Give the backbone structure.
Amino acid sequence: MGFLTTLGIAIRALAKNKMRAGLTVLGVVIGIAAVTTMVSIGQSAGALVRGELENFGTNVIVIQPAQQRRAGVRRGLTNTLTSKDSQAISDECPSILATTPLVGTGGQVVYGNLNVNPNEMFGVGEDYLRVRSWPMKYGAFFDAAQIEKAEKVCVVGKTIVTKLFQTGNPLGEKIRISNKPFTIIGVLEDKGANMVGQDQDSIILMPHTTVRRTLNGSSFDDVHAIIASAVSPEKMGAASDQIKQLMMDRHDIKPGQSADFEVQTTTEIANMLGMITGTMTLMLASIAGISLLVGGVGIMNIMLVSVTERTREIGIRMAVGARSRDILMQFLVESVLLSCIGGLIGFVLGIGASVGITSLINSFSTGTEWPVVVSMPAAIVAFLFAAAVGVFFGFYPARRASKLDPIDALRYE
């Protein structure tokens, strides 16, 4: 008996009990839809993380003081970096495109009778925007001469402009930061919110010398961090190694001694976050996959019932010449057909659920918009797994049917 004939008989057999067939495939539908949805949402989260890291800057490397430990207990950070370290990295590391020191500060910003507390206030170098790949909207960024003189100038983000000046032009206007007058010389291009909803445009950038001396009251050259940009993604590893070697030499750290600094690349951060999101996705997909096994048990149960109900039919078919393998193939095709129908429906529902859940997250999120990612490989693998479930759980009922004795089957009431 040909495969198409067997398939036609299987379709007619399932069509006689539409309700039962529908309830049988429900477990497979839920399993395939859940696996497709979970993997797609996980990949969407991974894409969001990668996008946020790209938004931070191109090929960025972060150098910061190492955690100080005593008797195995963390004692916090001690400033061990200087602006001269930043300049040395820029001058002596061939794989580095640009660097900038970073000095954090805080305080209230006042203009007239309006005030605002920015999310971020940094003292930086003249190459900060180059490292961060952050263009100016209008105006200009401060230069090396203004940094050297520790001039009270600043560049602001869109949110600061909106809150203090509404629709007015802020260039040349004076604002007070911690009661110190600063002149606005430029406005940054809009960035929007990040993945956790923090407004990246609520930012003020000033010369790092000005922040240290005027706002932080320090006469030292220490900085809180240094950020650098490699010349290309391929040079990230080489750039990181060059920075480590240079800093070990500059800080007189001997082999075997603990470094007083840490170097992290955005690639390392992305890999770490990717491992976390990948593990979570795999865990959720595994949990969702359990429903596929439940659906498989349902298929086996219904096929056993079907074999019992159609015992007399099996006897008649054997009596007119059907072989055991024909009977085996007949019930196996029915089982696989059930699981594949469930897989196809679950595949469509999974895609719809992935898009719907991502859209729902975006409607409630105040941060960066989640990208819509439909994991076609995961859906295809889940569909093939559903077919395998049909074969695995359908084989026993099909084999049982094929082993029936024709005489006993014809006598069955």
User: Anything to note?
Assistant: The longest helix spans residues 266-309. The longest strand covers residues 96-104.
